[in-house]
Amino acid sequence: MEGQCRRPTASRAKKPAAKRATTEPNRTVAAPSHAGGCGPQRGARSRRAEPDGVPTEQPRAQAPGARPGRTSVRIKDLQPSATGAAGDAEQPTVPEPRPPAIPEAQPPVDPGAPDVARGPSRRRGARSVGQPGAPRGSRRKQEETPDKKLKKVLEKLRLKRKEISVAAEVVNGVVGQLLSRMQNRESEFKGLQQLNTGSYYERVKISAPNEFDVMFKLEVPRIQLQEFCDTGAFYLVKLRRISGGNPLGHFLEDEILSASKMLSKFREIIKEEVEKIKDRDVSVEEEKPGSPAVTLLIRNPEEISVDIILALESKGSWPVSTKEGLPIKNWLGTKVRTKLRREPFYLVPKNAKVENCFQGQTWRLSFSHTEKYILNNHGIEKTCCESAGVKCCRKDILKLMKYLLEQLKKEHEELDVFCSYHVKTAIFHMWTENPQDSQWDPKHLSVCFDEFLTFFVECLRTEKLMHYFIPKFNLFSQELIDQNSKEFLWKRIEYERNNGFPIFNKF
C-alpha cells in the first residue's frame, strides 16, 4: 500500500466536492456517524482515478463534544429534531456565491492499519470517461441505508424453522440416548442430569443450527473451594468427608479433585456408549487441549457438532469473588439479582493456564444458566420482545457482532484467540450501562450497532474486559490474549465500520 503514486486529477464539478465515504465496487456507502453527520451528497462530478488495490479508508469523525479516551459509551434516547419544514421556509432564499471546485485530497493511508488488497474503487456519483452518469432519481432508488443493510444481514442469519426442527430432533435423540445409558450403568456419573446451555438455547444462534452445547451436571454436596492464584475464576475443589465414602474419591490427588482425571473418565465412558448407538452416524472428536467439552459429531447428512460439558453443581453460596458481579440492580432489578444468586453455581473442568502449562487440578466457575436467563429476559419492561410487547434490538446487535467476529476469524487465523463469549460479556456490560428499552429501539439499529462497536474497540484498546460475574477477572489481560492480537482485531473492526462492512458481502 505504501509508496504507490496517485495520478493528478482534474475537476469538472461546478459545485464544491463533498466528502465521500470509501466504497468498493458494488458496495454500499459506509454508515454515517450517529453524531449528526449527513450522508454523501450526490451530483458532484469530479473525474479522478484511484490506483488499483489501494484501500482509501476514511478516518472516522469524532462526535462534537466527545472526550477522547472514554471507556464507556451511553446510547441516548434518539428523538426527532424539533426543527421542521416550516422553520426552513422562513429562511431567505438569496443564493450564496459558490467558490470554484477544488479536487478532493486523498486521506493518508494509516501505516499501522492491516494491509488488505482491494480491487479498483470508484466514488459514488463520479463520472468515468465514456460512462454517462445515472439520473438522480435512479441513484436515489439504488441507495441503501445502513439500517436496511444490517437488516438484510440479520435476515440472512435467521434460522429456518424446518432446519431447526430437524436438527433439534436429531440432537435430542442422540443426547437422550447417551444420557440414559450413562444413568443406567454403574459408574461415578450415574447421577448425571441434562442442562441445556449455549447460543441455540439462548436464541442467539446464527446462520445454521449446526452447533449445540449441552451440560451434563453432577451434584456434588459438601465441597470446599480454594481460589487458584487469586484469579477469582479458577478453583481447587476439596471433598468433605461423607459417611460410606465418596464415589468421586478415586479422582483425588492430595485431597484435591482432579478436573483432568475426571474429564478423562467422562470422555472414556461417552466413547463407549456412543459406539453402541447404531441408528445414527455419531463419532467422538479428538480431545482439544484445555477444552472442558467432549465433542460429538453427528452426520445427518449435514454435520452437527454437539459439545457435552461435564459440570459439578453446587447449591451452596456463590464464591466471594462474585460478590460485586452480576450488576443488574438498575436494569433487571435487585429482586431478580437476589433470585439468580440463590440458584446453584457450576464448575467445569476448564484448566487454568500458567505460562504454557495447563493446571490439571483446576476447575472454572460457569454461569451459563444465568446468562441464558438474562438473554431470554433482557428488557427493563417484562413484556419486552414478547408477542404483545414492544420490540428491542439487543439480541440483533449481539448476532451482528458475533457474525462480524466469525467472518473475520475465517480470514485471519490471528483472531482464533477470540470467541463469542467475549462478545457476550461486552454486550452484557453495554446493556447494564444502557438499561432502558428505548435505548435499543430497532428503528435505530445501525446507531446502536455503531455504539456497541465503539465500546468493544475501546475494550480492546485498553485491554480491559472484566468478567460479568467475576469483576476482578480480566478476559483481555496480557496473560490470556497478547496485545498484538487485540490491536489487530480493533483495526479490522475499524476498517469494516469505516467502509460499510464489506465483509458482510463476502460469504
TrEMBL record:
Cell compartments where the protein resides: Cell membrane; Chromosome; Cytoplasm, Cytosol; Nucleus
Membrane-topology annotation of the record: Peripheral membrane protein
Sequence ranges of Low complexity compositional bias: 1-11
Alphabetized UniProt keyword annotations: Acetylation, ADP-ribosylation, Antiviral defense, ATP-binding, Cell membrane, Chromosome, Cytoplasm, DNA damage, DNA repair, DNA-binding, GTP-binding, Immunity, Innate immunity, Isopeptide bond, Lipid-binding, Lipoprotein, Magnesium, Membrane, Metal-binding, Methylation, Nucleotide-binding, Nucleotidyltransferase, Nucleus, Palmitate, Phosphoprotein, Transferase, Ubl conjugation, Zinc
Cofactor(s) needed: Zn(2+); Mg(2+); Mn(2+)
GO CC list: cytosol; nuclear body; plasma membrane; site of double-strand break
Positions of region (Disordered): 1-149
GO molecular function: 2',3'-cyclic GMP-AMP synthase activity; ATP binding; double-stranded DNA binding; GTP binding; metal ion binding; molecular condensate scaffold activity; nucleosome binding; phosphatidylinositol-4,5-bisphosphate binding
Name this protein carries in UniProt: Cyclic GMP-AMP synthase
Gene name, Swiss-Prot/TrEMBL: Cgas
